[in-house]
Amino acid sequence: MSRTRLSKHRILAIALGCTGLCAAAQAQEPPAGWRHTLAVYGMGAAIDGTAQIRDIEVPVDISISELFDKLEIGGMAAYRMENDTWSVSGDVTYMELGGKASGQAGRLRADLDVDQLTVMGTLGRRVSPKLEVLFSLAYFDLSADVEARLLNQSRTASAGVDWIDPSVGLQYVTALSDKWTFTARGDVGGFDIGSDLLLHGWLTLQRRQSDSWGWFVGYRLISYDYEEGKGSNYQRYDLTQQGPGAGVLIRF
């Protein structure tokens, strides 16, 4: 897996939740049974925080300057079905990332490889024409390899972890014109069931090109703090990802 410097480069961040971006595609549909939207999209985000395996802790501080340098394999897709009251949506993303980090006044050098799969399902209940209440379950599957070098000593560690986070949220959708729609979504979760805390925010501006397709741009924040195990089994991932995204929406 290739290496790039974490303190100066970017990753392609994991995106969660189809509800916001797909709902924008349907906001101007006339009431008529179930409506469906498929989204194919990408997101570039800054990431900061810490990743730790056993007693090897790697500081993470990634800017937006060279967005795709760390990504080796990645894919993102989402699907949503809805009627005038209920919505059901799902989102799947997968990434392979590799990079370098430094710390302890420049004496620590670390190579970090991460494979990450995220699957999120959301059930929505519309309480007004513009407002929806959301309940979601997000599944995270991470595997990480760390090689740390401090002065003349070198240590390696590998670990894998998976967890499920419940969350609750609200989504607001409004039509700005017959072509443009704005969506704002916010979720909070974890509740120490999976992670200690999960935060998710998603703002999108969607353009309808025709009855069958459109596109969107937006900005997303995802933050989680997860830890498990003790001693040689200890892992912690305390990361915040945020940045712009864009994609294509197919309606049927």
Question: In a nutshell, what does this entry contain?
Answer:
With 252 residues, the protein is mainly beta. It has one helix and twelve strands, in the order αββββββββββββ.
What does this structure look like?
The structure is a single chain. This protein has 252 residues and is mostly beta strands. The protein has one helix at residues 19-26; strands at residues 35-43, 46-53, 56-62, 71-82, 86-103, 108-126, 131-150, 153-175, 180-189, 197-208, 213-228, 235-251. The relative contact order is 0.23. Strands 1-4-5-6-7-8-9-10-11-12 form a 10-stranded antiparallel beta barrel. It has one domain: OMPT-like (Lipocalin, Beta Barrel). The chain contains 1 helix and 12 strands. The protein is 3% helix and 68% strand. Mean pLDDT is 82; it is low at 1-17 and 27-31. It starts with 18 loop residues before the first helix and ends with a strand.
